Amino acid sequence: MDVNVRYYLSMNSDVEKRNEDNYAFLRRIGDKAGIVFHLEDHVALAPEVVFVGGGGVEGNFKRTMGDLKDPIIILTSGENNSLAASMEILSYLENEGRKGVIVHGSEDDMAESLNNMIAAKRAINRIANMRLGQVGKPSDWLISSDVDAVKLKAVSGMEIVDITTEEFFEEVKKKTYEDNEYTLDLKKHEFDKDELEKALCIYGALKRLKDKYQLDAMTVRCFDLLTPFKNTGCLGLAILNAEGIYGGCEGDMQSLLSMVIIGEISQKPVFMCNPSRIDTTNKNIILAHCTLPVNMPTEYKLMTHYESGLGVALKGHIAEGEATIFKCSKDLSRHFVKKGEITANLDEEALCRTQIVLHLEDGLDYFTTKPIGNHHLVVNGDYAKAVEEFFKLLD
Question: Cβ distance 283 to 361 under 8 Å?
């Protein structure tokens, strides 16, 4: 990972030796963190980290901080009054209503913290200008998942764009879409060709709405498609997600913004799913849904949508191993995140098509005591600490 650093060097004596020590420190941290630091001494474009190389730099920081984006990550070596200067800088930032955080401790801890903080900061900055489309209102059973657009904008910068189901339906009726690598691969799978074409036309409608309204993400009241079109949005959302456009089901905006956050932190495809069954003895939770990003499973086959028996849904095999489960509240004031392990993919008849077993050492009681709605988000890999940093830095 490449990271731009603004380097503030103390003007104490023996500057050459201080530079040598500081560069060696950065190399050690970078090697541990898998980071390549780029230092340009106050003129770095879009610096993401401030490195305080010693004391006496506070005034220089104040004069040159204008182009730094919050939250400002302040790295200190712990030598040459670096920590003291960093504390003065952080205090000044807080007095000015700015956000910052000091990275300090053992080199191993600093390396881990930097990775998590940079992932969190990049996500905060990327989501700030995102436009989230809501095609129709949340499905009737999602009684706790509506989102206040004004509050969300104030907290995160994300903007909600309302789109009527009527406009969506008019696009579906055009029965057109443009082929791409995902549609072409889907057509190679064994399934009813007419039904697949209908599902791909729904994808085309969603893609045109995405382009028209310049959306970064969208959620669709997809069950409304069942009666007029005898099809579902499962396949369309699966393709959109693979293309990097977050796509959520059932008009669930709360889950969509959760999907955006964990997706931007992890830079991985996101599985939006239902908790289906909890095994408290073995500390497992079964999660299932009829759509997931086409580029997430190691393999997949096409089936109908579980509840309706209509349309085209994906039954995918998600790679076993470390995973993260996440959900945040509609105003981002509360969140749940846990590192877990995907231990199996199931093939049960009475569940939605893609089914995984997620092992959680702790946190299962959350689902039956204080859950944040129904749908939850799963990504491959461990991003729990990065999520925690996201909310600390966002606060």
Answer: yes
